[in-house]
Amino acid sequence: MEYINHPLAVTTLAHMLVVIAVGIRVVMRRAAPGVAFAWLFLVVMLPVAGVLLYVLIGERRIGPERTHRLDSLLDSIGELNADGRWATLTQVDWSRHPSAAAGLHRLCCNVIGCPTVGGSDVALFSDAEEVLQAIARDIDSATAGVSMAFYIWNEGASADTVLEALIRAANRGISCRILVDALGARPWLRGKQPQRLRAAGVQVQPALPVGLLRSFVGRTDLRLHRKIVVIDDRLAWTGSMNLVDPRIFKQNAGVGEWVDAMVRLQGSVVAPLGSVVLGDWMVETGTPFKELAESAGLHRVAPLGTADIQVIPSGPGESGDGLLQMVLALINAARKELLLTTPYLVPDDSILRALRGAAGRGVKVTIIVPERVDAILARYASRSYFDDLLEVGINIVLYKKGLLHTKSVVVDASISMFGTVNFDMRSLWLNYEVSLFIYDPDFANRLRALQRSYIVDSRAIDAAEWAQRSNAHRLLENSLRLVSPLL
Fold first, then answer.
1. Active site (annotated) includes residue 192
2. Which of 121, 138, 232, 424 is catalytic?
3. Has 405 been annotated as catalytic?
4. pLDDT digits over 299-321, tens only?
5. DSSP states of 277-324
6. Do residues 271 and 86 make contact, with C-beta atoms less than 8 angstroms apart?
7. Interatomic CA distance for residues 468 and 281, integer angstroms
8. Does residue 68 carry a catalytic annotation?
9. pLDDT digits (tens, 9 = 90+) for 402-427
10. β-pairing verdict for 117-125 and 262-267
11. What pLDDT does 3 receive?
12. Is 97 a catalytic residue?
């Protein structure tokens, strides 16, 4: 009894019980082995902080109310598909595409339930000023409604051009909805611009509110990372760019201007993209989806253009591991060339093996990442993967002219993935994202040309030189790699 009452013995016993309890919980939740071991490592090394972190962010808990609304959303979209309104939009001639495209389509239909729509026009934009001015012009042309979702909104410079266009639209009776992430857009939400918008009649809604009390209902680090603009039943925008002017956004972060790309879309793809942004509005506000879809005129969307596109919304409660399966299938489909851009490269084991496998079967794989990134933990964790990639002949180039924020993949100049998803576990598992799988060689070649322009402004990593970096750097990188599934 004396031994049991000794403070050290009590602490040791409590530590063991906590590790066992969390270990059982992790095992019963069937977490991926890398994620499970990362959590167990944290709990063993930091029992108090580790357990607290696990309670707060260890599981993809979204709460019963959000679960109910997501289920209702899926039912509502299923009803729209079932009543034949979009039947003409999903007619695709797969003989025009590589066999891998039809396989990706079937995979997505089976694991996520998102069919490809045929007949869309895709215009690629890579100049931020041009994007903001074009969005403002499109808002000025709106006749029925404007719906927007962004992770970050930052006032100042050309971003205010979009704000003024929204106010003009609301003043002429256009229904305008803005959904912004409660954390990503927190500084903006606390400023005066939301008040100006609401005074003009624009609906402004924070998404995924944060707070300690909310942690007991669901995770509060789940974020709305989408960037979508939908105008009437005619056109939409999406891509990697937040509603910011990069000339003034985060200029004290030491990474230069953020470099992004967006697409302006017309035709069939407006229907599924509109469903995503209106679905997000429904989940946050409880407004019936059918009412939102009718008011936005989504039933009137018609084909326009030659591109066939699959819109994939992903996030907790929406897609399971469907997006990861699509990414793996896309990488495995490559036969000649795979070009990839991402600001944050922290892959899980399956993606790492798929990339190495592609290089091993003779595919020319090039990964373009920024030389400097704003997230220091992700920066060093990312570098721990370079050895694995370089040793099989994968080209890694570091973009020098700012924080390259474009998220894109082009396979064999025929199939593209474009949208908001980074190649890290947060994007694939925790954020609410949107991805376009675009089956169109014309767009693939335009996106490939943009990627090649990034390479011109980059420096390639020399494998022999990289191998000479200090042991201190290796230790830091490999230590952060252990918790990379949590970043």
1. no
2. 232
3. yes
4. 889 999 999 999 999 999 888 89
5. HHHHHHHHH---HHHHHHHHTGGG----SSEEEEEEEESTTT-TTHHH
6. yes
7. 51
8. no
9. 999 999 999 999 999 999 999 998 89
10. antiparallel
11. 46
12. no
